[in-house]
Amino acid sequence: MDIDPAWLPPAAFRAVGGRRTLVRGAGPLVDTVRGEVAAACERFGGRMVPEEARADLVLELTGDTGDEGFACVRADGTTTVTASGGPGLLYGLFHVVRLGEDAFRGERAREEHRPAVALRMLDHWDNVAVHPVMGQVERGYAGGSLFWSDGRARGDLERVRAYGRLLAACGINAVAVNNVNVHETEARLLTDRIGEVADIAGALRPYGIRTHLSVTFAAPVVLGGLPTADPLDERVRAWWAGATARVYEAIGDFGGFVVKADSEGRPGPFAYGRTHADGANLLAAALAPHGGTVHWRAFVYDHRQDWRDRTTDRARAAYDHFVPLDGEFAANAVLQVKHGPMDFQVREPVSPLIGAMPRTRLAVEVQATQEYTGQQRHVCWLGPMWSEALRFRPDGEVSAGRLADGLVAVSNVGDDPFWTGHPLAQANLYTFGRLAWDPAADPRAVLGEWIALTRPEAPARLEAGLRAVLDGSWRTYEKYTAPLGVGFMVQPGHHYGPSVDGYEYSPWGTYHFADRDGVGVDRSAATGTGYASQYAKPWSELYESPDTCPDDLLLFFHHVPYGHVLHSGKTVIQHIYDTHFEGVEEAEEARRVWAGLTDLVDPAQHARVADRYEEQVRCAREWRDQVNSYFLRKSGVPDERGRTIH
Ligand code: GCV
Questions:
Q1: Options 4, 56, 262, 343, the catalytic residue
Q2: Does the beta carbon of 181 lie inside 6 Å of ligand 1?
Q3: Where is the Glycosyl hydrolase family 67 catalytic domain positioned along the sequence (predicted)?
Q4: What percent of the chain is predicted at pLDDT more than 70?
């Protein structure tokens, strides 16, 4: 099967490939750089030149620090990239590729580039064996797994290599290769099946990507035959130390472990009366001698709560569990926190845990796989959503201070010929990488980069069309789904399509509390669950009152009457009607724009997207009609514009 070049089509290398290039230095990543330049030269007529020859482009490694930064300057007709580490040189090459012909025009003042965030990671929720409910990839919408097929590693690593190359080109440097829900077969990747992981690591290494593994906290019991997994038990500590040492024998640059513990039924330290810090530090101690890191997920909440119990609020859970542990985590333990307090809904506030643990290393997790945002059947470019979250500052400042040590996305990639099921979902993956490199970047500029790289020869009409269908697609999706931050009106289990009361009487803790008078969850400190007070000022004050709470999040923080007037001047009920009609119209318009691009897009790709637009429009209408009918029936308030509501 042909591998879709995604944002690295041969033509993206035209400018580099037509030049005389000198690559200076040695090492595995320099070899990768040489290989890239040589392939481009072969295609576009340039050549690799020796030391004494005149060069248009010099790519020079000046040390062996492993550093990821690079500098770029152009003077006297030569563009020079210098880096003190192999990764930096590779990123420098891709920088020149992005610049294209601009890299070789006039003079360029020296610019230094380095990633703002050290750890830029993709987590795959891939199962090795097909899971009876979740399949090969949990929440995967792009076919099977890149790494595993039906119980074993895929023999052919060509796609894994191509994946590593794409990831390096957008700045990602770490991948976790298996699901955080570690089932029986997957548990053994840590021990007797580590060779399969080593092969994957070998394919990703030339692109500066370190491989990580999700492990089960119960491993000493299920794999080691011990009677306990108690983190303070010496036998358990010795078992983890030994198992981890053997991992490093197989993979010298192994990145570390990802752990989902005491979360949605996974084993964890609670069973032994221990804390999450005890649990994380156990694995951190095993990894420390080898330079590895444990990513301990903070997605811990009661998924067996009683919907009648109004005092338990899932949104509070991560903060309540983890803030008391601030300062107790080891230096090589990173707490991995979902960007919102719930679970990747189309609109959530930023988790109050971010910023509340100054003495703990933190990674923020987003979801590129579109579990709640259209499952790669709908176009939903998440750049603006992630950018809003990454620019959020707990103290109310904009873009100042430390947000996180790592950024992690749940990958949206599978063995699909277009990588991501929906070809346009590639833009999410690219955007994530670039925002992880620079969280302050303008996502729309990143979208422009993605378009320019993916379709280097795109006429203006194609560029404008792609922008038109992608740019506002997150807001469009938000408009026709759950309103004003309330979230979770999806069909239970698979989470696709509308079901307003789908989770309303369930144990998962995700409710909207709609009745005949109003809708929303009171999370204020004064009369609600107190969640709003988990934020520092000014956010705690802003969210506390419906008068100051941003419209977008009103129903997340407050239960209000349908006649409540938003800052926009509309009532809540009219907003619900209007946005649902608009959302469908916008999806229909995007379908029309795409249809007009037939002559400019590869036919297979055009057809795939066109098909998915049919489904998106169908599904958007279903959302509109169910949500609007539900609220008309509950409230009895007619649409002031008299449109048909069923
Ligand atoms: C991998 C949500 C998803 C689960 C996922 C979980 C998590 O609940 O629906 O599929 O499990 O998040 O992030 O651990």
A1: 343
A2: yes
A3: 110-417
A4: 99
